[in-house]
Amino acid sequence: MKYHHEKIEAKWQQYWAQNQTFAASNNSDKPKYYVLDMFPYPSGAGLHVGHPLGYIASDIVARFKRHKGFNVLHPQGYDSFGLPAEQYAIQTGQHPEKTTRENIARYREQLDKIGFSFDWSREVRTSNPEYYKHTQWIFIQLFNSWYNLATDKAEDISELIAIFEKAGNATIHAVCDEDTEIFFPSDWNSYSDEKKQEILLKYRLTYLAETEVNWCPALGTVLANDEIVNGVSERGGHPVIRKKMTQWSMRISAYAERLLQGLETIDWSESIKESQRNWIGKSVGASVDFRLKNGEGTISVFTTRPDTIFGVTFMTLAPEHELVAQITTPEQKEAVEAYIEATAKRSERERMADVKTISGVFTGAYAEHPFTHDPIPVWIGDYVLAGYGTGAVMAVPCGDERDYAFANFFKGQNGMPEIINIFNQDISQGAFAAKEGFELVNSDFLNGLGYKEATQKIIAELERIHQGKGKTNYRLRDAVFSRQRYWGEPFPVYYVNGLPQMIDAQYLPVRLPEVEKYLPTEDGQPPLGNATEWAWSTIENKVVSNDAIDNETVFPLELNTMPGWAGSSWYWMRYMDAHNDAEFASADALKYWENVDLYIGGSEHATGHLLYSRFWNKFLKDKGYAPTEEPFKKLINQGMILGMSAFVYRSEDSKKLYSKGLISGVNVHPIHVDLVVINDITNELDIEAFKKHPLYADYKDAEFILENGKYIVGREVEKMSKSKYNVVNPDDICNDYGADTLRLYEMFLGPLEQAKPWNTAGITGVSGFLKKLWRLYFDDNGLVVTNEEPSADMYKTLHKTIKKVTEDIENFSFNTSVSQFMICVNELASMKCNHRKILEPLAVLISPYAPHIAEELWEQLGCQGSISTVAFPVYEEKYLVESEKEYPVSFNGKMRFTIKLPLDLTVAQIQEIVLADERTIKQLDGRTPNKVIIVPGKVINLVG
């Protein structure tokens, strides 16, 4: 009976689907286990073999936990809103919904083919109105909330209004905009409704504000920092500039400290935690107010070194700082404006990373030192960021390398004084930036003090003269939540006199309207500006024609859409109760599943999705919905499977193509070759197929310089990418070798968290292993399994494997499990083992890794139902306890034979048996040994 993977896999995939084998229950007496993959964006390219790596690992864990008696939730869905689908719609004229639906169908087909134990009954798609109505609902909850620092949690905006009515805002401890004015209850109660709404926007957790954003003209949208690489858009490589726009923002900064502290409670890699710590960027210091010399206001700065205040030589503002236009003198206006224009073309990330370029312009304005009252020149420089701190720094060149370089670069120019040294240290070669090993000099009442004492004293003095205070600052900025594109969640917002109003939750979802064009309008509005029915009737409570707008009962709707991370910031909760129409998940479902026990996905989401998800989870916890503070208990970042690219080598004039072995000393250019025209095992190019390939039409008349009659391509390991033509389709592997082979091979490649190259040539070994496993159970005539009692060695091999595989799964060391399976099958084959007591648990043991063959073996053994919930074998120590030892017997240090003896023998008994052995007698040839050295359990050596 032969092993036919294609029939077996199709059979069991159909069985699982028909029987809902992996559907999780929200009511179970079993302990729960929630294992989740970062859900995919369904691109038109489909999956390549790198994509399933994390899914296979999570599936092994999910299946293992079912075997161990857990009620396992292992769902899957699609992050189906996003820019790629919209760009494709712009290029082809197809609706993004259509292409997304088609792409999802392709993904589903591929995922099913690999045999994942997903609970597909809970599938979510972020672009479905039934899903995004809950995203819209969460947005409304954020809008109707403020952050109370006294209770350290989000609370309802109605509670804030009640405080304003009774006490104003002078004593309230809340997160709000820096420019929020102080008012008293009499003021509040006299304000118009519009004025009250404007004030509340300064406190709401999602709010409208004019913000510096990353604007990509080519894509017509705002990009998040993590969507920009080297100053251009990650998608398409388009230029990105900084500009001010009125945008929706999320007040994630309110959660900075909780996001920081929460990292100590979760089992994530230290590298991911450190990325988030750096992104949050906590620093302790002081805010200092420098009054402008012209009396036109104050420059506020945040500094972690208030002890160095007497070393301030100049000040630097971010080019985007709101005061720049106000304070710049007429003489400096032209230079300042030119500098601002040039800076707008550089992203914040680029400016932060560039520590070598020094640039700036003097504004012509001066501030006043709070203690000496000396004039301090005010510059602008792009090393200062508008969004970090206050967008201004007090420059102390003697104590900061970047300030030192800036001061020396502009030394002697108008507006750049001599550096003041306030340390009893030499600064002739560079700044002294240490916080210890110095005493302050030239520092008035701080002279002779060190860092700690001076910091405490200067903060007290700043507070006494009302020009500063102690403060903790965070680099984390509020997240821009608007995108000027079509294919995203519509905001549940309409505008009355320019102020946002929330649509009542009972009328959600606000569905995405149909538009003819997906590009921004001619007057620069987002694509929703093309919609003809995009107004809200407060009488009918529905979307109506724009022609009906009268700004009395019918009002314009928000034209922006939500960013790609909106739907992914809470999706793990929807899986808990995916068919609940009334709420995003019931309280019972949330209480039962709590949070994700194991989350597997890419490390590239460290400061995007993973940070936003934690923020939304904490907010929903504050509001009484989420049962836990953190969404993901354990996180594993799978490594990347790299592609093996292929190259041909063309001459300068493109008339010759040299085989790999002949390029030495020849000036050639490598060209990526589509893997379909090479033999992936021998690396030989199919020359005729290459000539006919549409990508290589330019080379159909080229001369091929062969080695030994063949053209051998070059190979190189690179990231898998369509542009490098090194993508391997998992469908091909499943068709040729089987899904179980693919699953085992991907795990066998190396540790889950490391990058590893794909090599199709290596897959044949894994395929052969499965055939060898099959032959333990079957011969050509059918099942050969017997009920005979296995030998001790058979039990030992089985239990050694049970122990190893159990430990490996619990430690996520899947590659070594595959190695152990191969050792086990080889040992059992050599023992001619066909014993049910060994082979039945072996089928269960391999089931998480190779589920299709395991199911078939289980059925052929006469067992009922799916193998997926059968109890996992438990290793017993007694089978691994060695009762015998095979001793090497040496004569004068040279091993001559081995002898197997019980381990419980005494030294005297061992010596008696060895001396009586015929081989010893023959070796001694009548001689008596001078000494017999015996180390029980180790060696026997006869000397003399």
UniProtKB/TrEMBL annotation:
Location of the motif 'KMSKS' region: 719-723
Every Leucyl-tRNA synthetase editing domain range: 277-462
UniProt cross-references to SUPFAM superfamilies, sorted A to Z: Anticodon-binding domain of a subclass of class I aminoacyl-tRNA synthetases, Nucleotidylyl transferase, ValRS/IleRS/LeuRS editing domain
Occurrences of domain Aminoacyl-tRNA synthetase class Ia (ranges): 11-144, 713-745
Catalytic reactions of this protein: tRNA(Leu) + L-leucine + ATP = L-leucyl-tRNA(Leu) + AMP + diphosphate
EC number(s) on file: 6.1.1.4
GO CC, one annotated term: cytosol
Annotated residues for binding of ATP: K722
GO terms for biological process, alphabetical: leucyl-tRNA aminoacylation
Cross-referenced Gene3D superfamilies: HUPs (3.40.50.620), Isoleucyl-tRNA Synthetase, Domain 1 (1.10.730.10)
Methionyl/Valyl/Leucyl/Isoleucyl-tRNA synthetase anticodon-binding domain span: 794-906
Annotated protein name in UniProt: Leucine--tRNA ligase
Organism for this UniProt entry: Flavobacterium silvisoli
